[in-house]
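User: Modeling request: complex.
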Amino acid sequence: MILTMIVSAPLLAVGGVVMAVRQDAHLSLLLAVSMPLMLLAVALLMSRTIPYFHKMQGQIDRLNQILREQITGLRVIRAFVRDTSERARFAVANDTLTDTALHTGRLMAAMIPMAVLVMQWSTIALVWFAAARIGAGTMQIGSLVAFLAYIAQILMSVMMAALLFAILPRALVCARRVEEVLSTPSSVAEPPSPKALTQDPPESVPAARAVNGRIGRGLQFKGVGFRYPGAAAPALHDITLRIEPGQTVAVIGATGSGKSTLLSLVPRLFDVTSGSVCVDGIDVRELSLQALWGAIGLVPQQAYLFTGTIASNLRFGRPDATEAELWQALDVAQATHFVKTLPQGLLTPVAQGGGNFSGGQRQRLTIARALVVKPHLFLFDDSFSALDYATEARLREALRPLMKDTAMLLVGQRISSLRHADAIVVLDGGGVIGTGTHAVLLQTCAAYRAIVESQHATVELV
Ligand SMILES: Nc1ncnc2c1ncn2[C@@H]1O[C@H](COP(=O)(O)OP(=O)(O)OP(=O)(O)O)[C@@H](O)[C@H]1O
Ligand SMILES: [Mg+2]
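Assistant: Request completed. Predicted assembly structure:
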């Protein structure tokens, strides 16, 4: 549209004016009246409509937001019998949008009649003045015909440009919003001179640290503090923690105590606000993102799968994994049995978000997905919550040989999942209130003892 209208309209208008002046300079004075008149009319109209276009864009947003919420939360709305009120909420947003759209539509409808009016009046005036001059013999009839054609051409161009201006405000509003998104800087920026992790296995590394032909990597939190943007209180403060290769550290704490937040700092989903998180002694903010993410296997609290097949989901972190490796990962994640019973096996389609699997099945698939990567650091966020005790015990047993060189940070709510960890960290309100093994914590940390007792694990107290 820019090429066919914005560029051509002024060219035609200017060309028309030049030709008209050459034809008859006196009559061209008419243009000095009709062109500003046309521009004035358009400008008046635009100044009225542009604010409405802005408003409309916000209202379209609101409508989309409500609609999306209602579609994704359909079952919740039904379960809470909120149909009527949700319907009303949609109706309010919809009516507001309709009103604004009608108002702008009405204003814009005045555009063409206004333009035509100016054009026809110009024609009348032209014929009026020309008639006198033709009668006096100072002007040819042919000149009048040519002049009429020019003036139509000129005013048509002005009108075309005006029509375009009707679309332009909306386009501007939209472009500004796209621009806002595009110009938002990523909070996780690649460092200017990224460091790589040492290659595995380097010759300098003592054989004791090299397991399975590669070295393990440790994870350190050094006085870490973190505050969510805009939050009043920090979500984490003064966390100091070391996990050596092959070690498992478990984190336990009440809901909202900052466990997931702690894990999210490692892959730089957020950056710390004080202190530092280090992998092998190097601050994660100095590592190249590729090196960092390649070293981490994250099993998030929300088990999320992508549309595709089971195989495509498992290969998410490592597209070149062989089928045997996929089965191996499924074996460890205790998912082989249910995948085998599916008629299409690994090629079973996965719906959006993994909706066609049960919560527990999804969770096992996300564990397997992280295992396929063969990471150096394993982050489990409450990943065993949907597994029954026996399955979970089998899973832990199967994980053990793979974890010889892998540092594991495990978040959990069940003592049975955590008690075998090398160290357990008890979080409360974003701070550490106890560290130690299960036995030590039972002696030293009242909060931990309370959790254990609440889970009826009195047998383990002995
Ligand atoms: N994106 C966010 N923006 C602002 N505050 C957040 C955000 N995510 C979490 N919080 C706050 O940070 C605190 C810690 O949340 P976090 O998700 O780490 O808890 P958690 O220990 O993992 O809880 P759960 O056991 O329920 O998973 C909470 O008080 C929460 O309100
Ligand atoms: Mg959590």
